[in-house]
Specification:
Blueprint: H1 21-26, E1 32-36, H2 42-54, E2 59-63, H3 77-86, E3 93-95, H4 97-101, E4 107-109, H5 118-122, H6 126-134, H7 136-163, H8 166-171
Parallel strand pairs: 1-2
Antiparallel strand pairs: 1-3, 3-4
Length: about 170
């Protein structure tokens, strides 16, 4: 559950950011990890699934999927997936350890930098709008924190990609 969303055990809005399971598994160094959204980028999703299947080792593919608990018009689910990627809440990437053995960067970022605000994405969903109706001040505070989380996560992902460049790895030795 992302920060600011309401859920069964977070009716006042979740106060902590969500864990980045993909990056946690990528730290092992021998796990293929991809974060995908079929609605936002079908080609990237298919490529990631094919790479995960071909990888000789453990693979983790984390897919964004809209669901009824998000409280959206399900006919607009693919648009909401695109917004999740566009705001940076759900960056698309692939971490393939085989690339490092080939002298290439194992981390490929497949999405662009955020182009819309987190709030523009979030307030389409009831899980965020509910808190905005009940406690607007708290919602604003948590949504602002979520925007910071998104930007911090994006910066982290980009800096990790730079650090994993083969030239950068050689310079650090």
């Amino acid at each position: 559950t992302p920060r600011a969303a309401t859920a069964q055990f977070a009716s006042g809005g979740k106060k902590m950011p969500k864990k980045n399971m993909g990056m946690i598994f990528a730290t092992y160094g021998n796990v293929y990890v991809a974060q995908i959204s079929l609605g936002a980028n079908p080609a990237q999703a298919i490529k990631a699934i094919a790479e995960a299947e071909a990888y000789n080792g453990p693979s983790l593919v984390i897919a964004y999927a809209h669901c009824i608990n998000h409280g959206i018009n399900m006919a607009l689910g693919l648009e909401q997936q695109k917004k999740a990627v566009a705001c940076g809440h759900w960056p698309l990437y692939r971490f393939n350890p085989d690339l490092e053995a080939q002298g290439k960067n194992p981390l490929i970022i497949d999405s662009k930098e955020p182009t819309i605000s987190f709030e523009e994405y979030a307030l389409v969903e009831n899980r965020y709008r509910t808190l905005k109706r009940v406690n607007p001040a708290k919602a604003d505070q948590l949504l602002a924190a979520s925007q910071k989380d998104v930007l911090k996560g994006w910066k982290f992902l980009k800096s990790l990609a730079v650090a994993l460049e083969p030239e950068a790895a050689e310079e650090q030795k």
